[in-house]
Amino acid sequence: MPHRILLAMDGSETSWHALHETIRFAMPDDVVRAVNVIDDPFAHYQAAFASQIDLEAVRDSLISEGQRTLSDTYKTLHEEGIQADTRSIDLRAWGGTIADAIIREAERWHADLLVLGTHGRRGVRRLLMGSVAEQVLRQTHRPVMLVTGPAPSPQSSSTVATATEKG
After folding, report:
1. N or C: which end of the chain has fewer CB within 10 A?
2. Whole-angstrom Cα distance, residue 28 to residue 145?
């Protein structure tokens, strides 16, 4: 029986790792739907940065980058012989958070599995930045496969996170 695999792509290195793991995991009859969620910068930054940053230009950039990511993802899946489609989800229209949008799409599309890259942040970085993958994992009732990128080198860790992790 073919499976429906929802792959969240944000253009990050970890999402590309998730794509490659999906390719390794997918069976010939499976269908992969790659999704990219377009966050609305106005929802987060309008009051603080409206006079200094053109938030509409930021949004246009997010849309363009998301389209490139989905196009490259589709091409890669197609070249590997995997049935695929893509969907761009705009939070300005859908509302909610990135995690909410991924979960709603998984339910709407009847996904059998969700695949997401996770940055593997710890300590202060995780506290400050949160984790879409963690939110999806906690809120969905569907199976989730989290894929991490390569382990960060000691030089790339922040001093605050390293000190927190050590104790």
Report:
1. C
2. 19
Altogether, the residues listed in the chain come to a count of 167
Q: 41-49 and 55-79 are packed helices; what angle lies between their axes, rounded to 10 degrees?
A: 150
Q: Is 6 exposed, middle or buried (0-12, 13-18, 19+ CB in 10 A)?
A: buried
pLDDT at 166 over 50: no
Q: Where are the alpha helices (DSSP H) in 12-97?
A: 13-25, 41-49, 55-79, 91-94
User: Do the Cβ atoms of 99 and 135 come closer than 8 Å?
Assistant: yes
Of 29, 127, 19, residue with least CA distance to 74: 19
What are the pLDDT digits (tens) for 108-128? 999 999 999 987 655 444 444
pLDDT per residue over 42-70, tens digit each? Answer: 655 555 555 666 777 888 888 999 999 99
pTM (global) more than 0.85: no
CB-based contact 20:150 (threshold 8 Å): no
